[in-house]
Amino acid sequence: MSGKRYHTKGINVIEVNSARDAHARTVHARLPVNQQPQQQQQDFTREQLPIPSRSVYPRPSATTPRHICNNPNNPPCARCGTTIIPSPRATLPLEDCPSVTIDNWTISTRKRPILNSQEFENWESNKLKGLTLPEMIFGNNYVRVENTRDNWTLEFNALDALKHVKLEDSGIRVAYSQKWIDSKQEKHRKNLPEGASFDIEESSLKIAHHYDWTYTTKYKGTESGTSRLQRDDEAKLPIDKLSRPDNILFYDDMILFEDELADNGISMLNVKIRVMDERLLILSRFFLRVDDVLIRVIDTRVCIEFQENKVLREFKEHEGAYKDIILRHRSSHSHDPKAALRDSNWVVQNTPLVSRQCESLAF
Amino acid sequence: MFDLDRIISLLRQGRHIAEETVYTLCLLSQELLMNESNVTHVNTPVTICGDIHGQLHDLLTLFEKSGGIEKSRYIFLGDFVDRGFYSLESFLLLLCYKLRYPDRITLIRGNHETRQITKVYGFYDEIMRKYGNSNVWRYCCEVFDYLSLGAIVNQSVFCVHGGLSPDVMTIDEIRSVDRKQEVPHEGAMCDLLWSDPDDVDTWSLSPRGAGFLFGGQQVQEFLSRNGVDLIARAHQLVMEGYKEMFDNGLVTVWSAPNYCYRCGNVAAVLRIDDDLSRSYTIFEAVQPQNDVGNTILPTRKPQMDYFL
Questions:
Q1: Is the dihedral of CA B46, B50, B54, B59 positive or negative?
Q2: Acetylation: is it a keyword of this entry (chain B) (predicted)?
Q3: Where along chain B do its domains lie?
Q4: Which chain B positions have a beta carbon within 8 Å of A204's beta carbon?
Q5: Residue A23: pLDDT over 50
Q6: Mean pLDDT of chain A
Q7: CB proximity B278 to A under 8 Å
Q8: What average pLDDT does chain B have?
């Protein structure tokens, strides 16, 4: 907080005014177009503000938006001149379900807080029996894409993702595991002659309950009903089209689950979506870093061409030894190598690709 | 001149503290903490608080909702730093309170109060960002080495950051640990800061390959052997702020609301009264903006990008 700013009256007034404007703009923009107050147009004629009223009224047909904004609580959509970014209120928990429709495709997302204890216990003892759950599960979040004409849905959610976590020993151990176990056994041997009360039973050095504690999941999203995506490894994402800075109509970014691995790294599943006028792209990324041991990134990308009604899903696994990847940081993040390892985009570019699969579907 | 009340006031506003001031604070705190035993005795009534993780504004709410340091006694179960944006201010505020009201606040070491962990999980980065060098981080780490390992309230509530250790049958055994060091990767000190309760019949190894899990039987044995009623620990996120387990013989207290600014959980503190009754105070995270619309916390609004 800078003290100076608040002593200068003039600037203060401008700040208050623009804050009021911004607030009013947000509030009004949430209303459906036809309910927006008329005077709003006068309120926002200042040059520095984007003026929603310009884009509300008929435009040449070539540029008329094809999409429909489904939730009136949404922040402004492209019809009103700006992008849908689902953070409608400054308060937590965020509880909006923004949605947009383009032709026969409906895209919706939901963001809620982590599971409460009741939900958590229900998942642990019923839905995901046998798995010790990750610490943070955003179990009521989802990203969903629906083809309403052909009744096909693809959804990304935490429950289905965690169903892919194996209930067996992953074989992965934290870096200091052997040292830790050795020291316990050493102590055990020393204590044996006296049969002292400090005695650690051998069983205590056994793992009571096996599951993949790294929460590695090869989840590619949940298809409704029977799977209709067909293996098609020759297919390639239209990177050129996706690289174009087309106007983004809808954007969201959410975590499905996260675990800090008892401070031995991180395991996280994150889903991002961006919807443009002609296509959408989803990136579901599982990111695992076991400090001083290994790095794993599993990416699922879904690209949908609205006009052609074509779906493409690409699945890639990257994995490498921690020490090999950290060696590559030198040129890019010179002072803090650990920072590079927190940046999943940097990591994925520097971690060997282990496998790639592609599937496609055309309606 | 070294004016503790003024520093407290600056810290409460999240303002910058000069490097030399931090140095003095840390030095004084070390002298004070050096004389405390590994397990401190604390009298009721007392408020037991869980992880803070650099959420300064929520720490201020905690004091506000639970009576305040001027009127009440506190035990903090560790994990003052990392993850949040104000690790330094949160930790220094607690140290200042400790210097100002030594008998009203007990600070227990958490697994994040170590050099190794703070280098990875945010505190080190925060210091580099705020000071441009790591001196302040080093001063704070020196203090970490002197923090207590546990506390005992009226001979009936045992407080610790993580949990039990098979190397610690009685509370007295903790007193013989040499605590003035970086937390080792093995042994009693490590277990007390790292272990977790779980649904297991006996001591077991965590599937990660290090660290113990303990169950209801280990808790009951520990309670009866030591003549205490309750183990109060922190270390694990609980959506409702607290969670009692094993016939109420163990409680997890969590005091960082909306953890990492995105979990949407509430936080709690546990008050133990003179009659040893327990009461929990629940509180929510501060709003990211204050009532006149100024941002006090960076919001996690999705940053739109042309990801590929």
A1: negative
A2: no
A3: 7-283
A4: 166, 202-205, 212
A5: yes
A6: 78
A7: no
A8: 92
**Residue A173 or residue A24, greater confidence:** A173
Categorize the per-residue pLDDT at A179 as very low, low, confident or very high, splitting at 50, 70 and 90. Answer: confident
DSSP A222-251: EESSS---EE-TT----HHHHHS-PPPSEE
CA B35 centroid distance within chain: 20
- The topology (CATH level 3) of B7-283 is Purple Acid Phosphatase; chain A, domain 2 (3.60.21)
The answer to whether B303 contacts A253, with C-beta atoms less than 8 Å apart, is: yes
A333, A120 in Cβ contact below 8 A? no
- Answer yes or no: is the ipTM higher than 0.90: no
Please report residues of A whose CB lies closer than 8 A to that of B202: 201, 203-204, 208
Interchain contact B112–A (C-beta under 8 A): yes
Section A36-62 average pLDDT: 40
B124-153 b/e with 16+ CB inside 10 Å = b? Answer: bbbbeebbeeeebbebbbbbbbbbbbbbbb
Q: Where are the domains of chain A?
A: 1-64, 108-169+212-362, 173-206
Helix axes B87-100, B135-144, angle to 10 degrees: 50
Nearest to A273 by CA among A294, A305, A248, A296: A248
Q: Residue A33: is it exposed, middle or buried by C-beta count within 10 angstroms (0-12/13-18/19+)?
A: middle
